[in-house]
Amino acid sequence: MNRYEAYGPTVLRIALGIIFIAHSAYLKVFVFTLAGTVGFFESIGLNAPIAYAVLAAEAIGGTLLVLGVRVRETALALAVVAFGATWVHAGAGWVFSNEGGGWEYPLFLGIACIAQALLGPGALTPSELMRRESRPAAASG
């Protein structure tokens, strides 16, 4: 592995984390409002607690990804959320810019989460940084 390969999964991890945080905090809370989000979930036959669970999964999961904590497990949990969103938007067509949002974007997020789970956390995780600090300094000659 070259010295930069570990940063590919890192970039993916941080990007996914930011996207999921944005979808929870910004989109579902500030744009659609919490009441509007719950109302949408209920309008498609899902109970209100599922809306809160999705919001929490996106916010907490996104934060964990950015921080590099429990990345494989978190990515798999968020894949379930993304594939659920794919199902929700399936009737609106392919392109996510369609009215009602299409299914290509949440499908891509789900696949990216699976890739993240397979790749692992990459660099700049708390455990990697702790390992770096605990290594003895190289002897200078």
List keywords for this structure.
141 residues, 0% strand, mainly alpha, 70% helix
The major β-sheet equals: none
Gross morphology? elongated
Share in helix: over 70%
- How many helices does DSSP assign? 6
Order of helices and strands: HHHHHH
- Tally the beta strands: 0
Structural class: mainly alpha
Q: How confident overall, as mean pLDDT?
A: 91
Radius of gyration from CA coordinates? 18 Å
Could you tell me how far the N terminus lies from the C terminus, measured between alpha carbons in angstroms?
28 Å
List unreliable stretches of 5+ residues.
none
Strand content: under 5%
Supply the number of structural domains: 1
Describe this structure in words.
With 141 residues, the chain is mostly helical. The chain has one domain. The chain contains six helices and no strands. The model has no long low-confidence stretch (mean pLDDT 91).
Brief description of this entry?
This protein is mainly α.
What's the SSE blueprint?
Layout: H1 7-31, H2 34-43, H3 48-67, H4 71-89, H5 104-119, H6 126-134
Helix pairs in contact: 1-3, 1-5, 2-3, 3-4, 4-5
